[in-house]
Amino acid sequence: MPGMTFELSEDHETFRRVVRDFAEKEIAPHAAQWDRDHHFPVDVVAAMGELGLFGLTAPEEFGGAGEDGDFTSLCVAIEEIGRVDQSLGITLQAGVGLGINPILTYGTQEQKERWLPELVAGTKLAGFGLTEPGAGSDAGATRTRAELDGDHWVVNGSKQFITNSGSSVTSLVTVTARTGERPDGRPEISAIMLPSGTPGFVAEKAYDKLGWHASDTHPLSFADARVPADHLLGERGRGYAQFLATLDDGRVAISALSVGCIQACLDMSLAYAADRQTFGGPIGRKQGVAFQIADLEVMLHASRGLTYRAAALKDSGAPVKEFKQAAAVAKLYSTESAVTATRIATQVFGGYGFMEEYPVARFYRDAKVLEIGEGTSEVQRMLIARGLGLPVE
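^ Butyryl-CoA dehydrogenase, sequence as received from the core. Prediction below:
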């Protein structure tokens, strides 16, 4: 927007220092062990809640930060948590973006009062189930169905790759499902809220993932899972449109997580290049190493600028079209840069970068999914091209 600047405020930078201190003391010393054990640290999630990280976009009436918080603050928190542990970074990103925000945006007052206080406090988590074995961006391929039986929805089907969906503190998962057919023959997609413990709703065994080992991710199955009719989230038939709007925010948040990853790669590479000695001096004096680290600095500044520009547009109430384009640009560049940054950092470390005792290996494994979640790089390029007026299919 004309005249806007995208520098973080003094309050944002003060908040960054608070979150960084928490992350370095409460998360960094344990992240490697959690990764090895595939352990989801519920106690630390609760501590993040006590710090107010899950309430940064929520009103005070539900325990949130109200006017003291904003979307930019959430991005700062995700970046700083992701700088030491990408698993807990995505836990926060999904907990707010996919758990809280859809209820906050589309829920009834009764739904908000019932579900948000615990979610905002970080004592409970919620997930959002869109992806299926044969459907993700292609809503028409959704097979999960929800049929009204009197005053209840009966849900049958399955979802996959759902974050925060099967932990001991998961309170509900909102899922997209076919609830009928439109006049033009396309499926009517609605969003239904399924509380954990609902008979017929099962969070299957957690995935054995390449990365994000300390994040909670499950396939879900529904076999005649019954919930009251008032568990419809938002308008019937608008579930997919609601989720697409939710993804715009999520793309910026994933971009912030990527910035944290790049910052970690730069920090690790600088420290190692100063410490590692070869041929009578530190490897950082060699152009082959120094130039790669210089590239990390460039990627970091560019990614951070794009991320917080998009966040500022969100907070300022910019036109939806402008924000959507900025979100796609930030997500595409930052996530691809993060993957490149982990490759560079691993190369700087040489053989040690291939060893799990060094955190660079964990970041290398964690980074790839950043290019996939919340819309793949290919989807982002399609959205950007469409934003430029190109008739891309």
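Strands lie at 125-129, 145-149, 152-163, 170-181, 187-195, 201-203, 217-228, 232-233, 277-278, 281-282.
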